[in-house]
Structure formats: structure tokens, C-alpha cells
Write a structure and sequence with these properties.
This protein is 27% helix and 33% strand. With 208 residues, it is an alpha+beta fold. The protein has one domain. The strands form 2 sheets. It has a 5-stranded antiparallel sheet, with no helix packed on it. The longest helix has 53 residues. Keywords: Membrane, Transmembrane, Transmembrane helix.
Length: 208
């Protein structure tokens, strides 16, 4: 048997290099795909955490709607005084589907049982504007005044924020109402990473 003692031929070397290059390219492509998937997973987790935080802030805050620090004193066996915080929720900025993208509400922040006629520190709200969820400053209303970003538009873009008031919550005789929120957000630098979150917020102090 004849043996080539001079090493690889040019053709053999070329084939070996080609196969090695293909294997390397495939490996790099696989690693790149895995790295991209891992990065997207990380960003998705960040988005979930951000949206959950936003929903928790809104949910816990809106639950105060209608609270009156002097409610018990206003209701006795002989007299009953209507609370100024009755019907505490106002929805605004209605879309074509009948949903609202702004909610305003009041509650007795200082516990004195009085609601100033001029919008004050006892007037609150949330609205969608320009890809951000905003909170009112001073005498702002759903359609005017000064609002400040609650969310960071450089990190997350709020695509949709709607709120609908529904009643009853538990049964046909319940006088309690609740708000149904829907929020869709995406990463500003990766719009393909998107999440939709929905929740119900009971308004326990409504009709007080």
C-alpha cells in the first residue's frame, strides 16, 4: 500500500479548512442566536417588572377613591350628611370603542372631611399621553393643565391604557363598583418586546 508521507494535499487541506469554517460559522450563529434570545428574555423580564410596578401603583392609589376621614361622624342615628367625596371617579378621553384613557379621582388626603372646590392635593389621576402614563400637577384635568410623566418614555412606550367603570363587582345587589384597566407596553429600543396587562381595581369607597 502506498502512503502519502508528505502530509495533506492541497485539496484535502482546502476541504478541511472549508468544513472547519462551516462548523465555526454554524457555532457562532448558534451562540449569537442564543445570546439574542437570552438578551430578549432579560428585557422582557424588565418590561414585566416595570408594568407590574405601574399597575400596582395605580391600583393601590385608586383604591383610596372616595375615602372620607369624617365619614363616621357624618352618619348618626339622627342625621346623615352626604360626603363631598361621593361619586369620586371621573373618566375622560373616550376612544371610539367606548373606553377611556384618563381617570380622575378624589379622596380625603388630609382626613378633614372636606373637599376644596378648587382642584388641590386631594385631586388625583392617571392618563395616557404621548406614549407615557402621566399624573396631574396642580389644577390639571384630563384634557388640560400640567401633567408629569409617571413612566420613562426612554425605556418603555405605553401603547394602550384604558379604563372602564363597571358595577356590580360581586353580585347583582352589590353597590360597589370596580375599574377595569388594560395596559399595553413595549420597550422603546426593542418595540417587538411587548406585553399586555389587565387588572380589576375595586372602588370600596364609592357610593359612601
Amino acid at each position: 500500500m502506498l502512503v502519502n508521507r508528505n502530509g495533506f494535499t492541497v485539496i484535502e487541506l482546502a476541504v478541511t479548512i472549508t468544513l472547519a469554517s462551516l462548523a465555526t460559522t454554524a457555532m457562532l450563529s448558534l451562540l449569537s442566536s442564543a445570546a439574542l434570545h437570552f438578551y430578549k428574555s432579560q428585557q422582557y423580564s424588565r418590561l414585566i417588572n416595570e408594568v407590574q410596578l405601574i399597575s400596582m401603583i395605580i391600583d393601590r392609589h385608586v383604591r383610596y377613591a372616595g375615602f372620607d376621614g369624617k365619614a363616621l361622624a357624618k352618619h348618626t342615628l339622627l342625621t346623615s350628611t352626604k360626603s363631598p367625596f361621593t361619586d369620586p371617579i371621573t373618566l375622560g378621553m373616550k376612544d371610539k370603542n367606548g373606553a377611556f384613557s384618563c381617570v380622575e379621582f378624589v379622596y380625603d388626603h388630609d382626613g378633614d372631611g372636606m373637599l376644596p372646590t378648587k382642584k388641590s392635593k386631594e385631586h388625583f389621576g392617571y392618563r395616557l399621553k404621548g406614549g407615557s402614563i402621566e399624573v396631574p400637577m396642580g389644577n390639571a384635568t384630563c384634557i388640560g393643565g400640567t401633567w408629569q410623566d409617571l413612566t420613562d418614555p426612554t425605556f418603555i412606550n405605553i401603547v394602550n391604557f384604558t379604563v372602564i367603570k363597571n358595577t356590580p363587582l360581586f353580585n347583582a345587589t352589590s353597590k360597589r363598583s370596580y375599574l377595569s384597566f388594560h395596559l399595553t407596553a413595549q420597550l422603546t429600543h426593542m418595540p417587538e418586546v411587548e406585553i399586555t396587562f389587565a387588572w380589576l381595581t375595586p372602588v370600596w369607597n364609592d357610593n359612601v
